[in-house]
Amino acid sequence: MSHLPALVDGFLTTLALVALSFTGAFALGLVVVVLRIGPLGVLRAVGTGYVETFQNIPLLVWLVLFVFGLPEVGVRFPLFTTAVVVISLYEAAYVAEALRSGVNTVAQGQGEAARALGLTFGQTLRHVVVPQAARRVVQPLGNIGIALTMNTSLAAVAGVVELTASANRVNLVEALPIPIFVGAGLCYALLAAGIGGLAGLLERRLAT
Amino acid sequence: MRWTTLSVVVLLVVAGCSGGESSVPGTAPTSGIDALVAKAPVAADLPAGSTMARIRQRGELLVGGSLDAPLLSQQDPGTGRLTGFDADLGKLLAKYILGEPKTRLVTATSETREPLLANGTVDVVLQTYTITPQRAERVAFAGPYYSSGQAIAVRRGTGGIAKPADLAGHKVIAGANTPSIAAVKAAAPTAEIVEFGSDPECLTALRQGRGEAYVQDQALLIADAAQDKDLQLVGEPFTTDPYGIGLKHGDDQFKQFVNDWLREIQKSGLWQDVWRGSIGTVVAGDPPAPPVIGSAQGS
Amino acid sequence: MMFDPPGPRGRRRSRVATAVSVLVVLALVVVAVRRFDAAGQLELAKWRPFLTWPVWRYLLTGLWATVLAAAAVFALASVAGLGLAFGRMSAFPWPFRAYVEVMRTIPVLLLIYVVLFVLPAYGLDLPLFWKLVLPLAFSHAAQFAEIFRAGVLAVDRGQGEAGASLGLTHAQNMRLVVLPQAVRNVLPSLVSQTVGLLKDTALGYVVSYLELLQSGRVLANFNHLLIQTFLVVALVYLVVNASLSKLARYLEARSARSAR
């Protein structure tokens, strides 16, 4: 099949999108969750506002607003960068929520006990909460990774030729949508299964 | 918190009230197409068991198409009506089969239209569907019913792009899933194509410097340039894309039938009237000569 | 609470930090709005269409379609998800586990293709609405199952044991003791998931189900006001989904009160 190089290119672009966006989302999500559970009222509000705003508006709308709206206020990134930034910002809200759920599952008494021992907020997080919450958040984070993988297909809106867009281009010539898109879908499923497997592995490692 | 909740309740109530009526415009003014439909032909006897007989029995023509293709098949959000060249031809075809212009649009995309035809979810596809030999192996094409030409537009004052070959090495904006992509590839293989989903997105991208040129159907570009003084068309169309009416593969009887209808409306001048009411509203001059049925490779 | 209530100095510092951050954000907003204006995006002519009723009627019709589909998906997926979660914790967990594991890796779009392309070949041509709702429900059921399961597992084991020692049957125990606590544990995830499925209904464009997002695209194509239209659509989504979250938080607070 003469279109294989194009499809492989698209797949690699998808991989890059997934890796970069997940890294960005995780880093940003950490910041947001610390804001959200932290002691400073205004930062808590900022964290909550962030999560609400990004979760409540579809990624596609964010992409359009960032790709076509930002240049209107004088900010212009390359298209690929824009896609990575938007997906990171969007998924960070989900990461923050998953992390917060993990923190919430650590019994209330634990935090209070740590405080009674004189630990600061940072110390409580580091020594008491994170070790207990870490294992609980691996699966939810894995799920976010999978959702993020599927969501990268929307990057085509930003003119990024990833797997779905390249499948579209090939189909435009060949008019064989079922094999082409089922194939592309299986690639996504494979990626998702890989991420799920990785999460399972990590979870078992953290359990011991 | 309370006002957001309240407002959403209000929104929902309002939306609920209006839900039913928008698709059925009560007293829409008689537009050009209604007059054309009135004088459009109706097929005589339909052979029993044929596709057209089945459509007549069902009472409506299922058309695969777009809601967002200006000049061809664009929904007017105010009235809910579908306007444009493709949409009007769909109504005339429905009149020809059913005796009345009853169509139902099923939005198709470039990845769904072949399967939708194959499994009979739609009867015909009218959607900037360029006839190519590869596609003709999966679907049958009646027509061509229209010859489109891709043209180049730039921001006013852009130098160095005067003909298609000049696109080489430039970033060229094109609509995703449009014939423009193949056209650019053929005219300038080294051009980098940047795709966006819709015409306004492509225009915004061009204005914001995401590319040096924008390749699109000439009629659409003329309409865009009329609204945007900063947009400049370069030269004449450099392709001829024969648009076909997609039909189920192998249904020769239906293809013959649709082709006969196309010949009939071409000869009677209806085709030209439809062109005047849609594409002709932005393209100056008389209607072009309609394409010869069966002239495209694959039709 | 993982931190002590701040003392006088802490409160002062927090007030200063608040003032500074509010000022910085305000300054950024002002700069952005002014540049947006300078680019001509705030001209009245570009916003006037959004003050007219036909435009809103069109968008709200789309919103109504979104809400209808989302409600149907939520009803189906949450019930099925609950069943799957208990199935996975039963004596025969593997079929349920397999379902969840497979479903969460398959893109919803593929499921839609199955309903759209494959089923009609076997004579099963679903109405348009269900072509969107069923695949979404199948997919989200797996997600709901995982959320419910996580919630049940997070309930202290002693709770179930206490219920059993009171003579509750397994079913009573689940319904009266474990589930209410489990749902409270995972309410934030449930809300995220619900908001997520509401946004997923945007896949309706594939099956020709015209919902809010697609209506926005058609509208932008018609009026050529790309940025304005998407800002308005974003606002509608924000209002609807934020109300949903607010409702959930209200329920959360109420159940927390009654639990105490």
Task: Average the pLDDT over all residues of chain A and give the rounded result.
Answer: 87
How many β strands of chain A by DSSP? 0
CATH class (first level) name of chain A: Mainly Alpha
Largest sheet of chain A: none
Looking at CATH, the homologous superfamily of chain A is MetI-like
Total helical segments of chain A: 8
Transmembrane segments (chain C): 62-87, 108-130, 225-244
Keywords (chain C): Cell membrane, Membrane, Transmembrane, Transmembrane helix, Transport
GO molecular function (chain C): transmembrane transporter activity
InterPro entries (chain C): AA_ABC_transptr_permease_3TM (IPR010065), ArtM/GltK/GlnP/TcyL/YhdX-like (IPR043429), MetI-like (IPR000515), MetI-like_sf (IPR035906)
How would you characterize the overall build of this protein?
The complex is a heterotrimer of chains A (208), B (299) and C (260). Chain A has 208 residues and is mainly α. Chain A has one domain: MetI-like (MetI-like fold, Orthogonal Bundle). In chain A, 82% of the residues lie in helices and 0% in strands. Chain A contains eight helices and no strands. In chain A, helix 4 crosses helix 6 and helix 6 packs antiparallel against helix 8. The longest helix of chain A has 34 residues. Chain A is flat, with a radius of gyration of 20 Å. Chain A starts with a helix and ends with a helix. By secondary structure, chain B is α/β, with parallel strands linked by helices. Chain B has two domains: 157 residues, Periplasmic binding protein-like II (D-Maltodextrin-Binding Protein, domain 2, 3-Layer(aba) Sandwich); 85 residues, Periplasmic binding protein-like II (D-Maltodextrin-Binding Protein, domain 2, 3-Layer(aba) Sandwich), CATH 3.40.190.10. Helices cover 36% and strands 21% of the residues of chain B. Chain B has eleven helices and 13 strands. Chain B has a five-stranded mixed beta sheet, with helices on both faces. Chain B has a three-stranded parallel beta sheet with strand order 5-1-6. In chain B, strand 2 and strand 3 form a beta hairpin. Chain B starts with a helix and ends in a 22-residue tail after the last helix. About 8% of the residues of chain B have low confidence. Chain C is 80% helix and 0% strand. Chain C is built from ten helices and no strands. In chain C, helix 3 packs antiparallel against helix 8, helix 5 crosses helix 6 and helix 8 packs antiparallel against helix 10. At the A-C interface, helix 2, helix 3, helix 4, helix 5 and helix 6 of A face helix 1, helix 5, helix 6, helix 8 and helix 10 of C.
